[in-house]
Task: structure prediction
Amino acid sequence: MENKNANKHQNPAKTRLIPVEFTELNWRFWSFVLILVLGIYLLGLFQGNVSDAVSKFGLTDPWYSPTVLVIPFVGLFRLTCYAYRKDYHRHLFDHPVACELNTRQDKLGRAYTGETRFFRVENFHRYFMYIAVAILPFFYYDFYVSLTYIPGSITLSIGGIIILVNTLAATIYTFSCHSIRHLVGGRMDCFSCTAAHKSGGKAYRFQSIFNTHHEALAWTSLAMFVFVDLYIRAVAAGIIPNLHMVL
Ligand code: FES
Result:
């Protein structure tokens, strides 16, 4: 009990329900929140263009596909992803501070608060992963729509190909998830153990190829979502043509 109290004394940040990260004046975090709110507002404001893109060009914006209904869960899947988690704890909240460089001159020796108190939500990542996997087929369906929106023919367009590339990027990112690594590794915490190799050796090694690049995949996939959105809006607004061939 004494030890427990001593730890609490050393790490006051871990005892607060509302993390100190959300209550202090941190321009990095609040700039991020501002950009996020602005982005969501703009997505809501310019929906008209996107509906035109579906009816005229067969292009479904991934932000507005039926998956929009589960976007909060997908957002939580991304927010609790180890790759983004590392980035926002380090770069938005500025800790744990690397290499003893105390850039915020935080004399309190702040403790890392990931997966504690409010941030326990990060532990639900493994469950959000199932939702993220479940919605992937909808993105493939969006590609199918881009191929078949002209009745009786197959239409191959640049927009359709971009939707496919985005979907593949999202798929590879999702399946490179650490939670999936845990599943295919035999749900064991010791991957060097013989039993783990027996239960999931090949699948585990195959998944590791992608898992090694998980952070790069996370950012590439997110950038692709933004790119597809901008491309489809530009096509719908008549700024660029959606080059295509009808087979
Ligand atoms: Fe990044 Fe699961 S750890 S998606």
In short: The longest strand covers residues 155-157. The radius of gyration is 22 Å.
